[in-house]
């Protein structure tokens, strides 16, 4: 959900459906995923398969530790009874009589061993949780970084952040709780085995009671799962809205809209915390109800034993202790299953998103053409949605060193063309060829080293000037940085900064003016010595002086590399050899500026508006 609008449609992934069949009021068609209990467990299974060895060791350590605990309890009861009866022999425990010394030594030994094994189990569980958390973060971020531009660009604001932080943290919790559940269930099995050895009848009663209590609580677990699904969606909506709020700070202050923003954020906060509170109430109530039911079952067991006239105190004592401890493991198991039910929607959600990213990988092949230019577009078309074509019938050929201008009204398809030329989107019709090789077959790494882009708004990041120009590329030395900065007419400005190229720009480079930021991003484009430079409205947000500086740069570059300039300002197009006019998604003219005056009415009007005779 966006700040004041409805939910956004996620385009990239195969997101579909509501968040669960029984989730009333769910918004079908929003960026939610279909959820099923089995789906969540299948994802969990896939997630844990690579860690089978660790899980097996954890199970073994938990089982052995519980067996030792059961042995200790039986011995403890025996020792207590022997002391009360003034005997120096303990037993019978599992049909054996033991001298008091030996019984004490075995009890102590089993305690020490149990502690060691439990610590090993704790260590294994922590390691499992940590490794799964790392894997999930990597899986999600790598999938996002390798998905196509169209999917990345359609991603609702704030969603990736929310998935990488709170969703992954819930998955981590799910794995940690699952490890607890494994320990609890194996301990329960060990205790029941110990119980059977002491007295099969009472143990069968315990088993029955646990089964009964577990099934009584099963509708509650289903409700927890449903509410968690809603909780997950409310969290995503909240994250999206908050990130929009961050982006609209200036407008909010300017128009004094703080009140409306505050109300909306309060509303979203209330929605999100309400679903969270409801889930938490159910999750908190579940163990309390379980404990009462379980104690009730113990009471019923004792009543049954007294009714049949069972009077063996040593056996009753041992079975009672084993039973109570079993019930506490049962309770842990029940708590864990309630928590896991709450976490499963998060697991499935992340999995669906990753699959969506993977289904639409960034395009690219392995061919390295002789060059980027000559670059040919033949009858190229692009449609964002099947119903509406944004661009069609574009045919042209770019020669090495040529400067091509692109003009047209807003929404005509100019930026779409830029994204096609950059290879970020694949045409829905027609072909693009670099030196005769279809763009989809070209090696992306090779392409990115030779094609550069300057957008309307310079995007700088927190880092030094040098880092911002270098933009994570290898093999760019200090001299390259200076050359590019000189070409971009920004060298003097950089040298005037306190630490020159090493000056830290602070968040998003806000120490610099719009014009300086734009020239810095031109230096970033030029430092890789591109063959083709594409600029999308590089000067439309700038003052006249900044525009003149950029024009100087472009005219100095003219003929040395191939340039495509999309521009509103006719003055920015001074250097162009040819100009293409795009109107309503169609290329309506392409010619040298002189000839275009007679070819294109749009061009003539644009010149007149700009005051150029
Ligand atoms: P221009 O750059 O000439 O202003 P664009 O290439 O940005 O035009 O847009 C061309 C058409 O494609 C417009 O109708 C616009 O609404 C649509 N469009 C642009 N980007 C998207 C997108 N990401 N999803 C859907 N439609 C889009």
How does this structure look, described?
- The chain has 19 helices and twelve strands.
- With 613 residues, it is α/β, with parallel strands linked by helices.
- The chain has a six-stranded mixed sheet, sandwiched between helices. It has a four-stranded antiparallel sheet with strand order 4-3-6-7, covered by helices on one side.
- The longest helix is centred in the middle third of the chain and has 50 residues.
- Bound molecules: adenosine-5'-diphosphate.
- The site of adenosine-5'-diphosphate has 11 residues, from helix 11.
Looking at this protein, list some descriptive labels:
2 domains; alpha/beta; elongated; Rossmann fold; four-stranded antiparallel β-sheet; 19 helices; binds adenosine-5'-diphosphate; ABC transporter transmembrane region fold; single chain; 613 residues; six-stranded mixed β-sheet; 60% helix
The CATH architecture term of the largest domain is Up-down Bundle
The CATH topology of the largest domain is: ABC transporter transmembrane region fold
Apparent shape: elongated
CATH superfamily membership of the largest domain: ABC transporter type 1, transmembrane domain
SS strand fraction = 5-15%
- The total of helices stands at 19
Q: What are the distinct ligands in this entry? A: adenosine-5'-diphosphate
Helix content: 55-70%
Q: What summary fits the major beta sheet? A: 6 strands, mixed
Q: What is the topology, as strand order, of the major beta sheet?
A: 8-9-10-5-11-12
Assembly type of the chains comes to: single chain
Alpha-carbon distance between the termini?
50 Å
| pLDDT averaged residue by residue | 84
Please provide the count of β strands: 12
Question: What is the total number of structural domains?
Answer: 2
Cα radius of gyration in angstroms:
35 Å
Poorly predicted regions are: 6-35
């Amino acid at each position: 959900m966006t700040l004041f609008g409805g939910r956004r449609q996620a385009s990239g992934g195969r997101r579909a459906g509501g968040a669960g069949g029984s989730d009333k009021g769910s918004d079908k068609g929003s960026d939610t995923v279909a959820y099923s209990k089995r789906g969540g467990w299948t994802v969990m299974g896939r997630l844990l398969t690579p860690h089978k060895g660790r899980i097996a060791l954890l199970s073994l350590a938990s089982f052995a530790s519980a067996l030792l605990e059961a042995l200790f309890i039986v011995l403890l009861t025996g020792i207590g009874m022997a002391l009360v009866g003034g005997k120096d022999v303990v037993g019978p425990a599992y049909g054996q009589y033991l001298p008091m010394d030996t019984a004490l030594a075995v009890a102590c030994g089993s305690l020490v061993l149990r502690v060691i094994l439990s610590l090993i189990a704790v260590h294994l569980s922590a390691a499992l949780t940590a490794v799964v958390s790392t894997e999930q973060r990597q899986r999600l971020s790598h999938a996002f970084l390798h998905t196509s531009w169209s999917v990345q660009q359609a991603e609702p604001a704030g969603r990736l952040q929310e998935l990488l932080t709170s969703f992954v943290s819930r998955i981590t919790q799910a794995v940690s709780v699952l490890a607890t559940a494994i320990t609890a269930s194996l301990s329960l099995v060990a205790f029941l085995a110990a119980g059977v050895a002491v007295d099969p009848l009472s143990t069968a009663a315990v088993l029955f009671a646990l089964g009964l209590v577990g099934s009584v609580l099963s509708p509650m677990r289903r409700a927890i799962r449903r509410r968690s699904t809603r909780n997950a969606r409310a969290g995503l909506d909240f994250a999206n809205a908050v990130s929009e709020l961050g982006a609209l700070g200036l407008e909010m202050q300017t128009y004094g809209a703080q009140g409306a923003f505050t109300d909306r954020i309060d509303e979203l906060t209330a929605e999100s915390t309400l679903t969270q509170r409801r889930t938490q109430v159910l999750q908190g109530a579940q163990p309390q109800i379980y404990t009462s039911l379980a104690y009730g079952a113990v009471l019923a067991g004792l009543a049954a034993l007294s009714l049949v006239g069972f009077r063996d105190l040593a056996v009753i004592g041992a079975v009672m202790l084993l039973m109570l401890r079993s019930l506490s493991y049962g309770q842990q198991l029940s708590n864990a299953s309630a928590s896991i039910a709450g976490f499963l929607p998060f697991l499935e959600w992340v999995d669906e998103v990753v699959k969506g990213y993977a289904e639409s990988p960034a395009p690219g092949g392995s061919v390295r053409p002789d060059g980027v230019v000559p670059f040919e577009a033949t009858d190229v078309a692009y449609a964002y949605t099947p119903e509406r074509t944004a661009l069609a019938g574009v045919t042209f050929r770019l020669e090495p060193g040529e400067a091509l201008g692109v003009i047209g009204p807003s929404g005509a398809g100019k930026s779409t063309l830029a994204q096609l030329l950059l290879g970020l989107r694949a045409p829905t019709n027609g072909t693009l060829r670099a030196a005769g090789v279809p763009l989809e077959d070209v090696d992306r790494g090779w392409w990115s080293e030779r094609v550069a882009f300057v957008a309307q708004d310079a995007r700088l990041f927190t880092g030094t000037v040098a880092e911002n120009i270098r933009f994570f590329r290898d093999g760019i030395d200090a001299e390259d940085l200076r050359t590019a900065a000189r070409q971009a007419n920004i060298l003097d400005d950089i040298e005037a900064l306190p630490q020159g190229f090493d000056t830290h720009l602070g968040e998003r480079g806000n120490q610099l003016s719009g014009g300086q930021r734009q020239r810095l991003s031109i230096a970033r484009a030029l430092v890789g010595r591109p063959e083709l430079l594409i600029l999308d409205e590089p000067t439309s947000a700038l003052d006249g002086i900044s525009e003149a500086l950029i024009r100087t740069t472009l005219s100095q570059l003219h003929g040395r590399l191939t340039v495509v300039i999309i521009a509103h300002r006719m003055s920015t197009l001074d250097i162009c050899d040819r100009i293409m006019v795009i109107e309503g998604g169609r290329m309506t003219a392409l010619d040298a500026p002189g000839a275009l005056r007679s070819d294109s009415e749009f061009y003539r009007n644009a010149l007149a508006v700009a005051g150029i005779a």
